[in-house]
Amino acid sequence: MQGKRLDRVNQLVKEEISTLLQRELKDPRLGFVSVTEVETARDLRTAKVFVSVLGDEAQWTGSLTALVSARGFIRNWLRQHLDLRVTPELDFRPDRSMEHAARIQALLRQVSGDAGR
Known about the structure:
With 117 residues, the chain is of the alpha+beta class. It has one domain: 2-Layer Sandwich (GMP Synthetase, Chain A, domain 3), CATH 3.30.300. The protein is built from 4 helices and 3 strands, in the order H-E-E-H-H-E-H. The protein has helices at residues 3-23, 57-69, 71-81, 97-115, and strands at residues 32-40, 46-54, 89-94. The chain has a 3-stranded mixed sheet, with helices on both faces. Strand 1 (32-40) and strand 2 (46-54) form a beta hairpin. Helix 1 crosses helix 3 (71-81).
């Protein structure tokens, strides 16, 4: 599959899962989850779905558990809403880059505050 088409598929899968999480999935374990990236294999059989969760470690764990248990529902949703020959198996993975960036920002603010003394 060509790179541009694969990029479009990744974007479509990301948008559909994001919409589903906001409007359709009603699991109390699911916190504020955002889909940060989707990496679909060239053969479209698998897709890594990177998610970010706002909250502490318990909310991360609960949200990832909810996503894994809803994997079949989410895949079926994709099958119905996307016109793909093959609907990929979904592998949800944590993306802690936003958390890491916030920590670096806090450290930089702390260092710049110390340097002004």
